[in-house]
Automatic annotation (TrEMBL):
Pfam families: DctP (PF03480). NCBIfam families: dctP, TRAP_S1. Residues 1-26 form the signal peptide. GO terms for cellular component: outer membrane-bounded periplasmic space. This is TRAP dicarboxylate transporter subunit DctP. InterPro entries: DctP_fam (IPR018389), TRAP_DctP (IPR004682), TRAP_DctP_sf (IPR038404). Keywords: Signal, Transport.
Amino acid sequence: MRKLFIAGALLGGGLIAGGLAAPAQAQMELKFGHVGGPGSLFEISANEFARRANEKLGGKAKVVTFGSSQLGGDKELLQKLRLGTVEFALPSTVMSSEVDAFGMFEMPYLVKNREHMKKIEKEVVWPSLAPMAEAKGYKILAVWENGFRHITNNVRPIVKPEDLKGVKLRTPKGKWRVKMFQSYGANPSPMALSEVFVALQTGVMDGQENPLTQIYSTKFQEVQKYLSMTGHVYTPAYIVAGVRKWESLPEDVRKALSEAAMETQPYVYEQAAKLEDDLLAKIKAAGVQVNEADKDAFIAASKEVYAEFGKDVPAGGKLVDQAVALGAGL
């Protein structure tokens, strides 16, 4: 009995002491969801950001990454940002379904190279597009990369736009990509990235278009015969937070995250350039037939899409003109 009494007294004392002491707070977890598979540029970028951010946060909070659409596809992730159930996402093409003017990056051969993209970021994204996104509930922290997109398929090598006639082609969810491929004669269908491998494997889709890093990391080389180096669109990627959730974070946490996001960009560009050469060799080694496309023919066939975009999205049309002018001499 004496032992029980002593144990009870100690427990009671512990409870009293616990009541007087400030309760220990659990570390804030900041979830970062993206659609990139293992080894993709998205995964590499998100993990580098998390490493830098967590170093700066020093235990105040912790960024945890979830790739391969674990927290949902692009559309679901954007919804979760607005709801505040996910803190960060890495949308690319899908931003044009939220803010029409982001469709400017759907225009074929608009971005010449990464130096051109840096100018567009400074003169177009931050002054014009970022405020439009914020008005819709999305806070852009930095502009990263998805990359230059190329076409894979199981029908034939794509050299000129007419080679796409009748090809069932998966595209991301962005109406201007669909319109572009319709104008080339393809039969495009938007589909979540996580569903594409099976669609290609079963013949539901003949082909798809993506940067090499997405093509390789999602193993499309296992279910595709041809890779055509069209480079038809350069897609930026944006590290995005939901405005309401972002504004609820402590100021010092926001500062650390903003700095980490911007500091990660040069690393992203460096890794993207390195991956392009490495992955092309690996895709060829997997038995995929690679060909160069007639880019001049594609550019000539793209005038209709530019004209329609300028008519339907006047604000975006002006930004396209501005972006084109920024590429002069590059």
